[in-house]
Structures are given as C-alpha cells and as structure tokens.
Amino acid sequence: MATNNFKGALLGLTSMAIFATHDAVIKSLGETFTAFQIVFFAALLSFPIVTVILLKDKREGHLRPLHPWWVLARTVCTVVTGVSAFYAFSKLPLAQVYPILFATPLLITVLSIPILGETVRLRRWAAVVVGLIGVIVVVRPGQADLTLGHIAALLSSICGAFASVIVRKIGQDERPVVLLLYPMMGNFIVMAMALPFVYVPMQLPDLGALAIVALFGLTASFLQIQAYRAGEAVIVAPMQYSQIIWAVIFGYLFFNESVDLPTMVGAAIVISSGLYIVFRESSSDASENQPVLRTRGRNETPVTPRSSLLQRVLSPNRNSKKSGSH
C-alpha cells in the first residue's frame, strides 16, 4: 500500500498537539484534585466509547489471557504509568515532564534485550547512554530539588516502556481486546479503591474539563492510527517530540512557567538520541524486532489506549501476524 508521508506527518503533529492540550488540562485539574481522582473520572467518561470499540472485535476467542502473568504485569505497568504521568503533569512544569517521558524509547531499547531477545549493538547502546545523560541534565540531581514529580515522571517512563515491550512479546498470541480490557479494569479497580480517601467534590466545570481529557485522549489516539496508516512509521514516530514545543507555549501562556537552559539542553539530547534509535531501527539490518518503531504512540493511559491495539480491533481482517507485530 502506497504511503503518504506528508499526510502521516501532519496527522501525527495534530495528534501530538491534541495530546499536549490534554496534558495541559490535566495539569490544570491537578491543582485541585489528586491524580487518582482525575484518572478515575477521566477513565469513567471514556469507558463507553472504548467499550463500543472493543465490541467491534468479532474474532473468535475468549477473554482469558493466554499469557496471564505477562498480561498481569502489563496491567500493573499501565496503571502505574497513567497515575504517575498524571501526577507528574500536575506537579512539574510541562517542559520538564516531556523530556523525562521521552526517555521511554531508550528504555524500550534496553528492555527489548532480555524480553524480546533483541540485539543492540554499540551505536544504539551509545544513543541510549547519551539519552539517559540528557534525562540527568533535565533532572539535575544535586543542583535542583528532586521532587516526587520527577520520580513519578521517571516511573511513568519505565513502566510505559515495560508495558510496550510486553505488547511486542505477546501481541501475536493475545487478542487485542484482552490487552486493552485488562488494564482498563485494573485502572477502575485501583482508582475506585483509592477514591474514598482522596475525593474532593467536583463542580460542573471540573467535570467538563475531565470530559475534555477523555475526548482529547481518544481523539488523539484515533489520529495516531490514521497517521500510521497514511505514512511510514519512521516518518510518523518522530512527531511525538513536537509536544515539547506545545509544552513551552502552554507553560508560558497558562501556568507562568519559564524554560531554563539545562531543561532545553537535556531535552535536545534526549530527543536526538530517540531520533537516532528510530532511524537506526528503520535500517533493515539493524533491528529484528523494531521495538521502538512498532510501539506506535505515547505511553498508554486509561484515556489514551495504545493506538496499535485499537488499530488491530478496528482492522480485524488484516494479516494477524503483521498486525500483531505492530
């Protein structure tokens, strides 16, 4: 199938602009509500739409995981990823959160070695090391206060990478509805258990903002699907780094945030390393599994399901082996 890389890139940029707006709304809500409450209600509002999507999967099968321990590990990682990311957005400047989350492709590269049997040679190892140095530049341990927000962003990046690699590990065997449903259920159970201890009464404008979070998260996910359908992954994947531009703009306009030099330098290092890994994986002789290129999107949260899995549900007639690898 012919690709339209310009259209794919444009759709990718649009989806990331919507994601960034989604994150700015979360940050605004985080000034009043905990991450647990935001996750619960945002997931609750998006649940009906996601359920309708999941019902479109007409392929025969049951909802019992074929790899229960891997599915459980992915569920735990997805829950932690979502709560940690929402907490980080609420506590840190946006321009500090994104460079830390951009470390996810670097960590996917590392985790793919023991889990997928991926071979990582010297140049990709060098890119990983340089990228992690960039994260250290952003965090600046010893020079700036290391807060729970920084730890949460790092935890979100680590768990998001682990969840992504698990999908690559078992995606060809498990139904996509299983891989999407269990993290959703896990989020509802964990957030519902925490809610009585953290609940703060919500006004109608707050519920409206949560509806925006749900709507924007799903809209951006669908635009990602269209972007990868239109263009090559090596063109679309780097579009995620455009979020740092929106972070600077939104931080300045709405949260009175300024961006210091170490943050921008660290972000540039992390982004450069991530881009190198993306382009390196696109070489036919460089990567058997292409774990970063085939991750296709941001870290999964309750309101931003993994676009590669949604695509498999919406395109059930595609070759299962091919779609499973994406």
Describe this structure in words.
Helix 2 packs antiparallel against helix 8. It is globular, with a radius of gyration of 19 Å. The protein has one domain. By secondary structure, it is mainly alpha-helical.
Helix content: over 70%
Report low-confidence residues grouped into runs of 5 or more: 319-326
Rounded radius of gyration (Å): 19 Å
Q: Order of SSEs, N→C? A: HHHHHHHHHHHHHH
Secondary structure tally: strands: 0
Shape: globular
Class by SSE composition = mainly alpha
Number of domains: 1
Q: What composes the largest sheet?
A: none
Relative strand content = under 5%
Instruction: List the total number of helices.
Output: 14
Mean pLDDT: 87
Q: How far do the termini sit from each other?
A: 16 Å
- Oligomeric form: single chain
Gist?
This protein has about 325 residues and is an all-alpha fold. Helix content is about 70%, strand content about 0%.
Write the layout of secondary structure elements.
Layout lengths: L4 H25 L5 H21 L12 H24 L2 H8 L2 H13 L5 H18 L8 H23 L5 H23 L5 H27 L2 H4 L6 H12 L6 H21 L25 H8 L5 H5 L2
Descriptive terms for the model:
326 residues, mainly alpha, 14 helices, 0% strand
